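pinned: reference chain
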Amino acid sequence: MYIKNLQLKNFRNYAEEKFEFTQGLNVLFGRNAQGKTNCAEAVFYLCTGTSPRTRKEKQLIKNGEDGAFISCTCAGRYGDVEISAAISENGREVKVNGNKITRNADLLGNVFAVFFSPQELRLIQDGPDERRRFMNLSISQLSRPYYIALSRYNKILEQRNNLLKNRDISLIYDTLPVWDEQLCKYAAVIACARAEYIKKLAPLASDAHRFLTDGREELTLSPDKKYKGDEELLKKRLFDELSQNYDRDIRLGYTASGPHRDDITICVDGIDAKNYASQGQTRTAALSVKLAEVEIFRQECGEYPVLILDDVMSELDLPRRKKLVSRAVGLQTIITCTHAERVLYGQEVNKIMIEGGAIKR
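pinned: its structure tokens
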């Protein structure tokens, strides 16, 4: 699975440009603020329907323009796939093989992508929201039912939280069981999928971390809640948990339990990485998790995803840069950096120099 080409028009700082990528290592290089990350962002957007940098799509449009257009041709085991997105201030129109899609669920799974940048340190350093966001995006690419369950869960959760703010207490008590029946149905799907995902991710992340640190450190991942049982059993347990905490939720004005409160515990050598890991340990731990994500895609789908490494090399020492490049052999990797020579190390590389939102030929 790989991206053959990418076309950008009025996207970020690009007026109009076309990129040709190889199946192996592709290096976008040049001075800072020239558009390297914007290109990497466009690739990820076409794969997932989301930007790793912003939730406001109008920010993707070149300043002074009414809209942006991006498209790519992807090669997979079932043949080529054409994906395009026309973005305007009022929304977007996404097409797959020329057919308009109305749900992001129909985009996911056409081409898989893993994105890593220095900002991904939030996965370790920030609160549970970042770790849930990581799981949601990764699992959604692998499972359409998960993405649909997550979308419906969030909508019902919003409605439940609105109900909890109502001043009519009797109405709240009468209506909560109705919402909770639906909420727990989707919560069970989410909880089961996450538990299975972490079970697979943890040993792969540990192996990647040992590789990057030459065995000097041990990385462990574990869920903060142990969800046991099938979906029906979990549905009942979650329903009972919500029912027993009506008074608490009414007092707080929001739902204080459920998958939207879950977290992953990440430790380096048995110590909580969020609070005690050094900057270098945090960086390596986050990268290890992302490399593990790559392996999960290969195991689950039979193909490697596109690996996007945005400005990562400058954050790593020489031994870890070399290890990372060696780990990327065999899959399409798109790397952004200021100096292409820093990531060659004897590998065949497709070098693309970016200057002022254009390829310097």
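why pinned: The longest strand covers residues 2-11. The radius of gyration is 22 Å.
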